[in-house]
Design a protein that fits this description.
Blueprint lengths: L3 H14 L6 H23 L1 H7 L4 H28 L5 H18 L3 H28 L5 H26 L10 H28 L21 H37 L3 H29 L1 H10 L2 H6 L5 H16 L1 H12 L4 H29 L2 H8 L31
Helix pairs in contact: 2-6, 2-7, 2-8, 4-6, 4-15, 5-6, 5-8, 6-7, 6-15, 7-10, 7-14, 9-10, 9-14, 9-15, 9-16, 10-11, 10-13, 10-14, 11-14
Amino acid sequence: MASDANLTAVGTVAHAETGERTVFKILLTISFCHLLNDTVQSLLPAIYPMLKVAFALNYWQIGRIALTSQLTASILQPLVGLYTDRRPQPYSLAIGMGVTLIGLVAFATAPSYATVLAAAALVGIGSAVFHPESSRVARMASGGQHGMAQSLFQVGGNAGSALGPLLAFLLVKGQGSMAWFSLLALLGIFLLTNIGTWTKHHKSSTQRSITYDSARLTELPEDYPHATLPTNKIAVSLGILVALMFSKFFYLASLMSYYTFYLMGKFNVSVQTAQLHLFIFLGAVAAGTFIGGPVGDKIGRKYVIWVSILGVLPFTLLLPYSNLFWTSVLSVIIGLILASAFSAILVYAQELMPGRIGAISGLFFGFAFGMGGIGAALLGKLVDLTSLGFVYQICSILPVLGILTAFLPNLEPARSSGHSRHPEST
């Protein structure tokens, strides 16, 4: 009798055989909407110095703002993904952006720290609705080029993450000026409504074109890896990916939340100069994200994961001991290399469980947000007890967890003509 892994593998093979083309219009639109969503998200760390002064906050309280936003998104995203796997909601993307809009208005008018936390939670809810379904849309429009599609989708988000601090540097002169960014959310609602209409029609036609029968279960290609992986191997692989995500996002939390404070404290630069350095770092993150997916399509995702996690270790070890110039240079190198991991990790996980795209996307986006929020809060508490320099020294060793990549099976079929291989049994 066929296993669940076989059934999901058949679904993937059948989908590939429909001969669908990559829908770049949809990919570019969903990537741009990701840019809008993450521009709003990245405004929060960019305005932390302003909020710290306005509400007389310590680093632990700053960390709790990030924790509230990202932990809310972390908890809800897997649940949203599971729900939409069973009951697709094409217009949920526009609704999620509407919640983000409410959060922005709340930020602009917040009279107290408690209201700031509530606004952060609303922004987190909006992000929780956006990411799982939008990742599914990117895969639907990929035409089989899943790594490229996820990278294009992710680069929109990372470009938005880089753009947020730059816009904060140029436009945010006070708390009330945050309200202007609600215009970005309104544009997102309009575009995502159109995406929802496309998704609704695309899903119905795709579902009619794919059928399952018992004969298909015996026709899986020998080099199709998902049919041969046992359940416990999938579980161990997912656990390794989660550990790698912890390494990546805990380290990124130290830079995204406290990099401006680190530069201001160690090198005595102004808030505006620190925000500009943060923009440069996040720009490198965006570039690295785009590179990771297509390279993974060509050489294999496991190799990209190897390089992007373990390969960044020498640079993270050097950063706490560098001057301002080399700190800026190293932050760009770290952003380029480390960011290339996420698209490879996400598509690798989707290929482990191809019948659970929404749930896997929600789980990994949720874990990313959760690690970012928990990391920001815990590191903020550690900064209050020690110093930012000490925290960066501790975080610099996190990429050593990249050695766990050795235990991941190879999912790519053989690329040499006429030969096939099974996954490694590492």
